[in-house]
Amino acid sequence: MLRKNPNIQYHPSYWLAALGAGGTSVSFFMYLMWLIPHPATPIPTYADWHTQLIKGDLLAAITLFALIGVIIFALLHVLLLIWNIAESRQHKAALQTLDNTPAELQKMAIPLTLAMTVNVFFILGALFVPGLWSVVEYLFPGAIFAFAIIAYVASQQFTRYMSHMISDGGYRSQEHNHLSGLISVFTFAMLAVGFAAAAAMSHVAATVAIATSFSLAFMIFAILLGILFLVKGITAMMQHGLSEPASPSIWMLIPILTLLAITWVRLSHGLSHHFKVESHAGQLFVPLSLLFTLQIGVLALGYKVMKKNGYLTYYLHGDKESPVSFGLICPGVALFVMGMFWWHIGWVKTGIIDQFSAIYWLGIVVLLSVQIITILSLIKLTKKLLMHPLRQPLAQA
Predict the structure, then answer these.
(1) What sign does the CA torsion over 195, 374, 109, 188 have?
(2) pLDDT tens digits, residue range 335-387?
(3) Cα–Cα distance between 234 and 236 in angstroms, integer?
(4) Confidence of residue 276 (pLDDT cuts 50, 70, 90)
């Protein structure tokens, strides 16, 4: 049974636990996406993995491994989602105390997680509902509508925060010496990649045009906001040092870059199919390589900083407890997912390396190690922050 430390006030950052679990489920889907043949559909479906599974070879074993991972972490995502919804309702008054404060923006974790939920259920439907892809064109408008509702909620939350910052002069650099403001950028980038899914996979031109328009709008909005919060946050950190409790925010740029990269890949496919805009793996090699290497740089810098200030020692491996620590999970998930895109689009599809060659498997093993470290961290934080023991009262003598 999930139970947080009762001495720690409920905070929107607990939603990042559900977000991390959902992202981990998607990361297992990447094995099916890139290793399992699916010639008739843009993503693997029930028929594809079922065909592969009965072959009984190495890819069949990988398929089974991936399916188990998708199911386990999708279930964990739903469990944590339900728990957070219940906790949010129970602690509504506590959440309202964040309004008109710098911490109000952390409520963006809620629409961010809900957008991930749509992605998780889309994957589950494709994989475990036989024949679903035959009616998928009827589902794309529903997915666009779901993302539109979440986008409305996120936009309302963000504009409330920004209106207070602008009208009342709520920005003080000593209160923003971190990159937690990137949670809003993360949310809008997640919406951009969500809309881009329909743009990449639909065969209906109107659906592609609508999805592309929404995706582009949120992508450019995310980029502009990202520049704003990066400049302000880095400037404040240079003046006041990084706020220790918000240390995971220094890695938040990693999942944002992954989402923006996948958005561009998806939009490139949609524009190529319907608007005759040329797109091929070679054109994507440079942007994917630039973003992936930038992520490595951010990862190295963030790790060095958090080793120096002791965050990883005390909050991940030690006794200090903070729901903000769940912000450590998504960067690992995002680096793995981005690595799979970069490895397969930039190296395999361009013919630089042969799929299933020795060097190919070496790359997969390196990415697998990132995934394993991330999963172990998610399990550790879940046990530490959400499985607090229920202490029984001492018996009367």
Answers:
(1) negative
(2) 999 999 999 999 999 999 999 999 999 999 999 999 999 999 999 999 999 99
(3) 5
(4) low
pTM above 0.70, yes or no: yes
Mean of pLDDT values over 165-191: 88
So what's the pLDDT on residue 275? 67
CA 137, CA 4: separation in Å to the nearest integer?
Answer: 42
Distance CA 60, CA 50 (A): 9
Cα 368 from Cα 262, distance rounded (Å): 20
Question: Looking at the domain that runs over 12-386, which CATH code has it been given?
Answer: 1.50.10.150
pLDDT at 278 over 90: no
Asked if 20 and 333 count as a contact pair (C-beta separation under 8 A), the reply is yes
Mean per-residue pLDDT for 109-124? 98
**Distance between CA atoms of residues 38 and 44, nearest Å:** 5
- Predicted confidence at residue 103, as pLDDT, reads 87
Query: What is the mean predicted confidence (pLDDT) over 292-319?
Result: 96
The predicted pLDDT at position 239 comes to: 92
Residue among 215, 219, 221 nearest 199 (CA): 215
pLDDT exceeds 80 at position 393: no
- Distances in Å between the Cα of 306 and the Cα atoms of 100, 103, 237 are 29, 21, 14
Q: Among residues of the chain, what percentage have pLDDT more than 90?
A: 86
User: What's the chain look like in SS3?
Assistant: CCECCCCCCCCHHHHHHHHHHHHHHHHHHHHHHHHCCCCCCCCCCHHHHHHHHCCCCHHHHHHHHHHHHHHHHHHHHHHHHHHHHHHHHHCHHHHHCCCCCHHHHHHHHHHHHHHHHHHHHHHHHHHHCCCHHHHHHHHHHHHHHHHHHHHHHHHHHHHHHHHHHHHCCCCCHHHCCCCCCHHHHHHHHHHHHHHHHHHHHCCCHHHHHHHHHHHHHHHHHHHHHHHHHHHHHHHHHHHHCCCHHHHHHHHCHHHHHHHHHHHHHHHHHHHHHHHCCCCCHHHHHHHHHHHHHHHHHHHHHHHHHHHHCCHHHHHHCCCCCCHHHHHHHHHHHHHHHHHHHHHHHHHHCCCCCCCCCHHHHHHHHHHHHHHHHHHHHHHHHHHHHHECCCCCCCCCC
